[in-house]
């Protein structure tokens, strides 16, 4: 029998439960052996959904970590535990896939990076799911092969469907604001298409609370627009939104000197079109899961493969910290109303680094 | 541990190999225990791809059938073996999922049906993959809920990408012509949307060999258009083609008294659009697998679930025979150039059953 | 001053009034000098809309024909007058643009053709508006330049929006059934793309009354599907419908040996898309005028130019009669339920001309 | 005979010649009586294209202005003459339609406004063609009727097709940079959808020269991105580009609290789609004329109607000056690298007016 990677999942919330099921059922080369969550509801779910398949359930992370044979840990609990658990898992010699963000705090995120560097034989990755999306990969391959010349302008948006409750408000408290939580995906994509070594030149942002006034107390907004200028004539601009009527609409366009690529400009939920008296109507996906489920499954499988076959991960942990840093800049620019400037080494300066 | 259905796959050609992998890796409640194929190449593939996972390999169908514990057999070898193997499997007390068609011969197909009726506790199904496609299901739900009123006209096409070889010619020899092989899917969909009890009133068809002259020797064509009129004011019309330049483009539209639904009118391969000097370009899937892979996976899982939980299958075996019968009518109409007529019981008559 | 063509319009119904306005306001090289209509309502409209611009109004066609200086007549009244008025105008030495159909009767249509042949210096044309549509022309140019190889299969539909009144029933009485009235446009397009000299090999058709039972009294249907097979391996199939919920959806696809062209597969009314809670919605045009208004304006201008500059018309009158003939075949096939067969000279035969 | 508005056109360059033809041929209630241009080439064109229709040709603006009977003047020559000619025409008692911009200089633009105010009975308008585009109007009506709730975020882009010459560089010298020349249309639209009385709160912009290095000498760029924040929680962001590969792609989206409208997200040139081996391809328009020709014709007709029937113009001259002012802010923000701030009365301030 081919050997399977022994995996444990920490945190069985919305995403954690999905990770657990993915490793249990949709990652042929992995074996889910243990999970943990302090919440009795999560444990009850695990008892019915996972235990019959032989998965051991813990309420304590460290006890789970000590479960014999575990090789890799998926860290998917509350954000404040992402970094500490990742660090403990790494130090215990486990490979780690940590949900994004490592932390909403830059220094803490950097801390994970520092620890990971000490264990170069371990695979440590954050879950930037769009990197595993087939459409983004196809677009990247085209861009990389020169189809659109040199990428110059990058536009990307993360737009959530409006929810008629206060979920986004409560979420804002822990998620670190719209640019850090949502746009961080778009920023990561910008770095992917522009090059991970792109150096920020200036950052500006504006925002407003159109439907969720409760976000103000956390310095957050439900609509934010930001521009990140990079040295070398590269411009990224972002839109993040929590109130789309139609559904989840995350999209990207990459404008190069000789062509343009778009990803999800025209969202597709299924292949049905409805011709009715008011027009032709297409439904679109309602959640990020509708959009990115196959990417999460690919993530599980590629992480597993990278560990088992000692292959390189598709992107580096440093990139995740860099994306978070730029997200924090946008957040600062939003909150202060100021435009931020940087020199060619990326150091903060007080005045525009260059004028036309 | 939850019990898993023990499955065997007969035939490891293009589709059989995919079935085997699906049962091995993508059907959590099933366990692939054995496969068989007389072809040494197929066996070599199985040795590297399946044996390491503990799958037992046979070159003989009956030996495989005798493998201890097998509960269900996937019959996926050459078309002429579909019926005999299905019958032996049923008579051996196995549940059967048989690739379409049961046979290109109506009587032989009916024979499988007759045997299956004697074993009502066994699940016997043919692989009409489109029945498991999420878009068709969504469209059907909308139609069933009355969104488009009463379905009146049904248009459906199966269009394969052109291949620069003689595959389709060789394939025609065994597949029973374009209407029986390709349009049978569209016919099955028409019966699904119009009702399985729809009675054929007339059938006409034309066709031509535009790119594969070699098809003529088998009475086959590479482009065929047919109309199937049903009693009760329902019209289905079909197009089948073996020479699409762009890729696989299977699409359907259902026109009701109060609206219309289309499935795959605008094919989607991924979410990338390419803006280049010659226009905006989208690539589409090249093969039926590109289009229907998720449907095949759903098929494996639902078949498994139906057996394990003794649930009804999503459609009946009789429908498969009926679809094949209509496909044969189209083929006859094509070959003779005559329009076929039927009375309200579906019996063949020599003259139009009614005039306006 | 550049000389302008002196034009008269006969018949000020829906289309006639539009023609009059087009010649008055949107055909710079033409001058509308006279109109006629026996209906007092039409005359009242003309008094307010046309008379102030100096247009002379008549209630009698022949009096209008005698109006000094008239060079061209647009025949746009009731269908039964199309042929007689056209003939009188031709015999009076006028150029004629006659709305389609010349007549619902083939012999009468042929009569116009016969008269026109005697006056070869006169421009006589029927109003096949789609021939003037920019999209059809662009598609034709691409096809003509070999972009799709040899055209093999032609699919075209004329689908009117459902009307909640008995308009289509009353209209059926005089328009000569759905294939002659609506599909005739699609047939004309098929002849354009396949070649005007294409010879019919077989014709079959079915139809049903789904929403307008009153059509039955005229041997007409509100949904009709027909196949016209041409000698030389060319197949056209047609759909005509009077009950589309969404609007007017006339579309065409031309499948060649090396590619496919579609015209209006995705109808566009304006460039607005509405993202709302139920999906992404586009409105489409509601009438043939919404779809073809620019084509009618181009028709006026090109007809005028052809006369003034003695240029050839874009298509021949014989084609209109041929399209009507094929429409009549479809109608016969619909009404008798029989498939019609023809030999390689286009002569009617009783049995299929060839078998596979 | 209904009376026609006597119109003169000054400037017969690319747009001026089109205006002249529109008034000559496509504006039924107007009569083109005179044109002027100092360029012999333009005069030669007018002699062949306009003189035969009775249009008087001048080389001098003031001589043309003195032509008897002229009621309205279309000012369409070089930008530096827009304001002086408009003022002289107004002072001579003529209605004026002046191409945008009134001037690239704000004070000069304001000067036209000041003069126009003294002649309230005259219609004075600038040519913001998108205001006459049917799609923008339909979108505006939907927004105005509350279909998307309150507009919150406005995104709009003006993207020209790349030209393999130095046209854009020479043009930049006189047009006043990309934000003033191109984005001014998007800004005007933002004011239309957000309300003309919207007060700017902050402005930031970045840009780069990706393909036309020669633009740098004029402080201009070929790709510019800017954000204009308005008081009251309204955000507009803009993209302008001179190097699109595919064609002219001007598009807009308006995100409201309860829905979103897009205009030209999916550009349409004609209704043809090409299915070929590399995918499904649609061509798009190559120039602003391809996109907006019908809007220019509607502009001519509505301007004429407004004068003849003394109806209000569809938008006010003050708006044009306001749009230009915001364009100048973007240009300043681009050139200095600074973010600009404004208080609630629109007065410039040195620090962000508010922090979250």
Explain what the structure shows.
The structure is a homotetramer of 356-residue chains. Chain A is of the alpha/beta class and 356 residues long. Chain A folds into two domains: 5-126, Rossmann fold (3-Layer(aba) Sandwich); 133-293 and 322-349, Dihydrodipicolinate Reductase, domain 2. Chain A is 37% helix and 26% strand. Chain A has an eight-stranded mixed sheet with strand order 12-11-7-10-9-8-15-16, covered by helices on one side. In chain A, helix 5 links the parallel strand 5 and strand 6. In chain A, helix 5 (106-118) runs antiparallel to helix 10 (317-336). The longest helix of chain A is centred in the C-terminal third of the chain and has 21 residues, at 288-308. The first copy, chain A, is globular and about 60 Å long. The model of chain A has no long low-confidence stretch (mean pLDDT 96). Chains A and D meet through strand 7, strand 8, strand 9, strand 10 and helix 10 of A and strand 7, strand 8, strand 9, strand 10 and helix 11 of D. Strand 14 of chain A pairs antiparallel with strand 14 (279-282) of chain C.
Characteristic key phrases:
homotetramer; 356 residues; alpha/beta; Rossmann fold; Dihydrodipicolinate Reductase, domain 2; 2 domains; 8-stranded mixed beta sheet; 10 helices; 26% strand; globular; NAD(P)-bd_dom_sf (chains A, B, C, D); Scyllo-inositol 2-dehydrogenase (NAD(+)) (chains A, B, C, D); oxidoreductase (chains A, B, C, D)
